[in-house]
Specification:
Elements lengths: L10 H5 L10 H17 L2 H11 L9 H7 L4 H21 L1
Helix pairs in contact: 3-5, 4-5
């Protein structure tokens, strides 16, 4: 079995792997986890924290848009824009490997 990460996986799908929606081998899952952790380290602090809150990285709690906005003392619209930007940046880092 190959431990290559399927290229068509997007950030949203990668973070949902914990729900066992995909039939990936343990080696593939570990590879994805390592790749995501390495990519997260390359984001700026704000982007990294927003990704962690929005996707429940770490504690597993998925924060709402309202909660993220409140934590970062911004509007829901601005929080959504920042999450979108952080997600795109993370996807780019994951594709670059």
């Amino acid at each position: 079995m190959s431990d290559e990460i399927p290229e068509e996986l997007l950030v949203n799908e990668i973070f949902e792997i914990e729900t066992n929606r995909f039939s990936l081998t343990p080696e593939q899952r570990l590879g994805i986890k390592i790749k995501v952790n390495n990519a997260l380290k390359k984001l700026n602090d704000r982007e990294r924290e927003m990704i962690k809150l929005w996707f429940g990285v770490g504690d597993g709690h998925l924060y709402t848009l309202e909660e993220v906005a409140k934590i970062f003392k911004t509007t829901k619209g601005r929080a959504q824009h920042l999450i979108d930007t952080a997600t795109k940046n993370l996807e780019k880092l994951l594709r670059e490997g």
